[in-house]
Design a protein that fits this description.
alpha+beta; two-stranded antiparallel ribbon; 9 helices; 2 domains; Transferase(Phosphotransferase), domain 1; Phosphorylase Kinase, domain 1
């Protein structure tokens, strides 16, 4: 059953969106403290975030509050922010059964009616399960750091991508700050993908479906830097998620963005913003820069016991040509084979776990 609320509260003076600590929404979600933008524990920077307590079960939640009325000075901006907020809720509903996507718990409107006023001031609220923060500050780049943990993160996020792909969705904004840690069960780390508000729909019904890119530009696929986009859904959207999954491998092991490394390796006259020709015209040059980035900066950072398999996976996922991305055998059969990549990552993670246990026991 959908948990939707419409809470109207009488006040002397309406509080601002970033001054709601202490407010109880729908007699259930007590807003405890404001989170800094960009530090939210369930992913996403759209709106203001709060840690909240669910008074019904005692669990902590993450609550995103969107002040769409603040944009009333521009009717276009008002419509845009409303559309984006409603679309994010729609995407959360579509992902409710996905085990590796941060789950929406409730949603609705919180309205304040000031004394003497006949019109309330409304905020859109989305209540989500609360994680323990993103992975950015939890990556150990020391040579003795756990490869198992990194591979398990990739195992979890690859499953999230597969789950969204099966629902004809592409996340479109996979990056470290949207990879959220949850409480571990023994040695099983629980990782989920947050912030589905920029997702792309195969049906073409989403507000970002016609955009070249709606996600974070620092992690975007190489082709989108040059305004290039394939027409087929799989080669445009699923292939973009594949690229960002590969880019996540680079972050976890090398602390680097494939996109930024490749661009910095290009001749100045062929970089985005300067080059005005077709992406296809310079794809061989980009491939050379990509190969050089992998060989010099990425692959050497992968532990030797995982290097051969994981370097192949990175190449499959981040190929400069979106039509070539994916597991090779699956590509020949007409898919990207991200389910196969997920299975390979799971096997690699389990082998790394055994290797690390044996290594630790021998010390």
């Amino acid at each position: 059953m959908e948990n939707k609320f419409n809470d109207v509260q009488n006040v002397v003076k309406r509080p601002a969106a970033d001054d709601l600590a202490g407010i109880v929404i729908s007699q259930r979600y007590r807003l405890e403290r404001l989170l800094h933008i960009g530090k939210q524990e369930s992913g996403g920077n759209f709106g203001v975030g709060y840690i909240a307590t669910d008074l019904q079960d005692g669990n902590q939640r993450f609550v995103k509050v969107v002040d769409f009325r603040k944009r009333l000075h521009s009717l276009h901006e008002l419509r845009e922010i409303l559309e984006w907020a409603e679309f994010e809720i729609l995407m959360h509903k579509a992902c409710l059964r996905m085990s590796k996507v941060v789950r929406m718990v409730a949603h609705g409107e919180l309205a304040f009616l000031e004394e003497g006023s006949s019109e309330s001031y409304n905020f859109i609220c989305v209540v989500m399960e609360l994680g323990q923060g993103d992975i950015k500050n939890h990556v150990d780049y020391a040579p003795e750091g756990s490869a198992y943990w990194k591979l398990w993160v990739l195992r979890e996020i690859s499953l999230a991508v597969v789950q969204m792909e099966r629902a004809s969705l592409a996340h479109n904004d996979i990056k470290p700050s949207n990879v959220i840690r949850f409480a571990s069960e023994g040695d099983r780390h629980s990782i989920k993908l947050g912030d589905v508000g920029r997702a792309i729909t195969k049906s073409g019904s989403g507000p970002f479906d016609d955009w070249i890119w709606a996600g974070d530009p620092r992690h975007k696929p190489l082709e989108t830097l040059f305004g290039y986009q394939e027409q087929e859904w799989q080669d445009r959207s699923t292939a973009a998620d594949a690229y960002m999954l590969g880019n996540l491998v680079c972050f976890l092991f090398a602390g680097a963005s494939m996109t930024e490394r490749v661009v910095s390796s290009l001749p100045p006259n062929l970089r985005p913003g300067t080059f005005v020709g077709s992406y296809r015209d310079i794809i061989d040059v980009i491939r050379h820069a990509w190969n050089m980035t992998l060989d010099k900066h990425i692959i050497p950072t992968i532990p030797e016991q995982s290097r051969t398999e994981l370097s192949s996976i990175i190449r499959w996922l981040t190929d400069p040509d979106p039509v070539l991305r994916g597991e090779p055998a699956a590509r020949r059969a007409g898919t990207l084979g991200l389910d196969r990549v997920h299975s390979k990552l799971e096997r690699m993670a389990r082998r790394a776990q055994v290797f690390e246990r044996l290594t630790s026991a021998s010390r």
